[in-house]
Amino acid sequence: MVWENQSDVIAMMTKEVERGRVKCHKYWPEKLDTPIETCHYHADSKCLDECVPDLFARFVRIHTCLDFHNTLTFITWPDHGTPRSSEQLVRFIRYMRAVHSTGPITVHCSAGVGRAGVLICTDVILSLVEKDLTVSVHGHEKSGIAFLDMFFFVKKQVSE
């Protein structure tokens, strides 16, 4: 999906393991500067500057198709909860936009309907606000956001 759509940014909204459960399998090298070799691709990664709190940024290069991916991980979002403040998520989105240049942004969490939905919804809302367009989340309570506290988190951001 990432290669097919030429996505240059992957936003990972989960840690690999949370509460003792695997939430995401590694699709990048275990150690920085130690590549992964498979019959289909060669991948290596480097850590980007950690200039944004709550974010781990990794640059992954896939050699077979000369694709480059920025894998951004929001590291302080609790499983089945919300970030401490909307400012954390807004900083993450601004950094995500800054490193994005081509194709769609790929977003994932562990199940795909909680944190990923909140990130996408918040990014859309920020885009609307930046363009001075009307923002309304009423009637969309079940549109990609799994938990009510996450929906209220998004709704609170609209009012801020």
Automatic annotation (TrEMBL):
Lineage, opening ranks: Eukaryota, Metazoa, Chordata, Craniata, Vertebrata
Molecular function terms from GO: protein tyrosine phosphatase activity
Main location: nucleus
Designated name of the protein: Uncharacterized protein
Domain of life: Eukaryota
Any coiled-coil regions, as ranges: none
UniProt xrefs under SMART domains: PTPc, PTPc_motif
Compartment(s): Nucleus
